[in-house]
Specification:
GO terms for molecular function: zinc ion binding. Keywords: Metal-binding, Zinc, Zinc-finger. With about 775 residues, the protein is an alpha+beta fold. It folds into 5 domains: about 140 residues, no CATH class; about 60 residues, no CATH class; about 160 residues, Nucleotidyltransferase, domain 5; about 80 residues, no CATH class; about 100 residues, no CATH class. The strands form 6 sheets. It has a 7-stranded mixed beta sheet, with helices on both faces. Strands 1-2-6-5-4-3 form a 6-stranded antiparallel beta sheet, covered by helices on one side. A 4-stranded antiparallel beta sheet has the order 14-15-16-17, sandwiched between helices. Helix 9 runs parallel beside helix 19 and helix 13 packs antiparallel against helix 14. The longest helix is centred in the C-terminal third of the chain and has 33 residues. The two termini are about 60 Å apart.
């Protein structure tokens, strides 16, 4: 959307020395403008056609419209050049029909270009011509249809730049379907998943138009290119950017992007995580854990899931890492998915490393078994059983794990099911393969980042071939990871940065307990309720029951700051390190973040959203709406508040004004007491000791303790409201603020004015 001022600025930008003769602006779909600008004279018709075409192209992108040539006026004599454009939904060359989806809306919007002669006869009565303004542009922007609805933008025509981009896709090994999906993925990553961009045929053409472009590209025989002919341009492009790519006859592609290269040369490779996704082309990523989650160091693409291919892939990846980092890669720990082929290959390539099974793969396998049809367990009983399994998996030593093992072994469903009983025994007998003697504080975030990336590849990239996956890793995942690192450096929500482009649930999600949620599915014929937990990452939905990171988990983690996945604070050196790994903080090069959230530096200021953020809807924040119910002191401590997760452009303020000085636990410092009060206190301490003075000192201490307690309670409520910013809580916050205004701040308290009233019978004292 645009305003009168922005429209005027845009017209001045695309028209040289623009002078407005008429400017009537009613709305973004109804305005009339007449302007004059300067165009070079003594040029041919092709030059003027190119000028007009470029002007129309820029104006169309700004107003989300498409224009067609109505008349070119080839035989004009009284003027030098003229061309008339109509809205593409005019009746020109269209059949009349009653269909609502027809292009023919009899729209009369038009743009008229007139280029006049400049000579002694024409400048006599035209002041603008004497100034060199020889192009007259008349815009009648009055449409008979909506412009920015999803249906309207879907009828726009694809631009020439978009067509050229698809021709480039076809020349580099893309099929029409692959080009369509990859292009939509680029749009989602750069502009968000708003229908304004996804359905805009200007930048995202329809499948019918893509097939038409593909038919035009067939004579070039791009589909007959060999594997080497398609990989060589990608290799040269990546190496020129500072990356690395190699491939062999087995179609094993080793890919290291510039960001991965910086991770290799910066972080230690003592702990390497190997994770594979076997849908379509097998994608194997090598990660290293960090405070920002799992950072990739290499991507391996191969076509077969067997030990031979895994050995070949890991061997070439090891050699590439050693050549790039100029080191010998000898990891101490390698975490893998619970897969025999990967385990055998890792033992061959890294014989001295301790091979550990990833805990997220164990949870996924167990949850898949619990939700299977072979074990008929009620939906409401699945999560308590999974929580018992999760306690064993998260155990750091044998003593703790054994307690949970015996408790799980005696569980009713385990004793009644041979499959579950066998799985419990297998899990406990193989504890040496997954149990570590220590628990890394950032492993929860590492596991979540891997699962989110894995689900992103499963959902968005399952049909991509090797060539497209190379482009996805180098163009999309590279920018995505860069934004994650910069978000962590700026103390923004790290999990939201990971899940920003993930598929999120549009249903209403409610919290029913600590780390437990439920969602009501009303879109199906038979409404149903499913539950999920964010501590075990398990959901009862059709996708989550296979152990996958479903849209419900993504929605909650994207909008809720959980203790389980809260990122670790970085030191100044670590912030500098992650900024260097990200390639520097250059906002103008960040294509994935079209708009940004402007946050005031003052901790007491409110969060403001920039206009571009509101227009583009690139980022989303959570609007939590609590069900109406009476407010009681007990409800403030409850964890089972019901709330809805809705997409709103209302980002939450993550700054806690009470946490500016972390060395102060009570929030009350010596500086908060005025100098006059300090002199009175010192004089009072030196005064003769008597019972009245002792009582006064005791009451002063009690007053300070009350203020400390009040301050701690306010900090707790502040954190609670920050995690649950719903309407009822806002009302409670206002009530609390009114009560706090009645209490005099401690820095304004003059202890000399304190009046002490003693009641010995009740052994009570008051401060007035």
């Amino acid at each position: 959307m645009f305003t009168k001022q922005t429209l005027m600025e845009h017209l001045e930008k695309i028209s040289e020395n623009a002078k407005f003769i008429k400017f009537d602006f009613v709305s973004t779909e109804n305005f009339s403008v007449s302007l004059k600008c300067k165009v070079e004279t003594k040029q041919n018709k092709a030059y003027y056609d190119a000028f007009v075409l470029q002007w129309i192209k820029k104006f169309s992108m700004f107003t989300a419209t498409t224009w067609i040539v109505r008349n070119s006026f080839p035989k004009v004599t009284r003027i030098l050049y003229r061309k008339l454009y109509n809205c593409h939904r005019a009746s020109f060359n269209k059949k009349k029909t009653t269909s609502l989806t027809t292009l023919n809306q009899e729209c009369r919007a038009k743009i008229d270009f007139k280029l006049k002669f400049i000579n002694r006869n024409t400048i006599r009565n035209d002041k603008c011509l004497r100034e060199g303004l020889n192009m007259n542009i008349t815009i009648e922007f009055v449409h008979t249809h909506k412009l920015r609805t999803p249906e309207a933008v879907n009828m726009l025509k694809s631009t020439s730049d978009t067509n050229d981009l698809f021709f480039k896709y076809f020349s580099t090994g893309y099929s029409p379907t692959g080009a369509k999906k990859y292009h939509e993925l680029l749009i989602c990553e750069r502009y968000g998943d708003s229908p304004e961009y996804i359905m805009n045929a200007n930048i995202n053409p329809t499948m019918r138009h893509i097939m038409y472009l593909h038919s035009k590209a067939k004579p070039n025989n791009w589909s007959n290119q060999s594997f080497e002919e398609l990989m060589e341009p990608r290799k040269r492009s990546l190496e020129s950017a500072g990356g690395f790519l190699t491939y062999d006859t087995l179609k094993v592609v080793i890919l290291i992007t510039p960001l991965m290269k910086r991770v290799i040369t910066t972080l230690d490779l003592d702990h390497i995580i190997v994770d594979s996704t076997s849908i379509g082309v097998i994608k194997t990523f090598l990660y290293v854990p960090s405070k920002a989650g799992a950072l990739p160091i290499a991507c391996i693409l191969h076509t077969e899931k067997c030990k031979t291919f895994y050995i070949q892939a890991l061997l070439e990846a090891k050699q590439a890492l050693e050549n790039i980092g100029n080191i010998i890669v000898v990891p101490k720990i390698i975490t893998i998915k619970d897969c025999n082929e990967v385990r055998d290959a890792v033992k061959v390539i890294f014989p001295n490393a301790k091979v550990v099974t990833s805990k997220w793969s164990l949870r996924s396998d167990v949850w898949r078994l619990i939700c299977s049809e072979d074990i008929k367990i009620e939906s409401r009983k699945r999560h308590p059983l999974m929580e018992l399994f999760n306690n064993i998996i998260r155990s750091c030593n044998v003593e703790v794990g054994e307690k949970h093992y015996h408790r799980l072994k005696d569980e009713e469903y385990v004793t009644s099911s041979q499959l579950l009983s066998k799985r419990v025994e297998q899990l406990w007998q193989s504890r040496d393969q997954w149990m570590l003697k220590y628990e890394d504080t950032c492993m929860n975030l590492v596991e979540a980042s891997i699962l989110i990336t894995k689900e992103f590849i499963r959902r968005r990239c399952k049909s991509f071939n090797t060539y497209i996956m190379v482009d996805v890793v180098t163009n999309i995942l590279e920018d995505k990871l860069r934004n994650v690192l910069l978000s962590h450096v700026k103390n923004q929500n790290l999990v939201s940065a990971y899940t920003r482009s993930s598929i999120t649930s549009k249903e209403v999600i409610k919290a029913i307990g600590c780390n437990e949620f439920r969602v009501e599915i009303t879109s199906s014929k038979k409404p149903k309720v499913i539950k999920f937990r964010i501590d075990t990452w398990c959901c009862n939905c059709s996708i989550g029951r296979y152990g996958r990171f479903c849209e419900h988990l993504s929605a909650v983690l994207n909008f809720q700051d959980t203790e389980l996945l809260r990122s670790i604070e970085l030191t100044d050196e670590e912030k500098y390190l992650f900024t260097e790994i990200a390639g520097g903080d250059k906002e103008e090069e960040n294509l994935s973040m079209k708009s940004e959230i402007a946050v005031s530096n003052d901790a007491n200021d409110n969060v403001e959203v920039s206009d571009s953020y509101k227009d583009n809807k690139n980022d989303f924040a959570m609007d939590v709406v609590e069900e109406e119910r009476p407010i009681s002191p007990e409800s403030l401590d409850a964890d089972n508040d019901y709330f809805h997760l809705e997409v709103k452009t209302e980002p939450l303020d993550s700054n806690d004004p009470l946490e500016e000085d972390k060395n102060i636990s009570t929030g009350i410092t010596r500086d908060m007491i005025s100098d006059n009060s300090e002199e009175i206190i010192t004089r009072e301490i030196d005064y003769t000791m008597d019972s009245s003075r002792a009582t006064k000192v005791a009451l002063r201490n009690r007053y300070e303790n009350v203020m400390r307690t009040l301050n701690d309670e306010f900090r707790r409520l502040n954190n609670y409201f920050k995690m649950n910013p719903n309407k009822s809580n806002m009302e409670t916050m206002e009530r609390l603020a009114r009560e706090l205004r009645k209490i005099r701040p401690i820095e304004r308290v003059n202890f000399a004015n304190m009046h002490i009233s003693l009641n010995n019978e009740e052994n009570n004292s008051n401060i007035k």
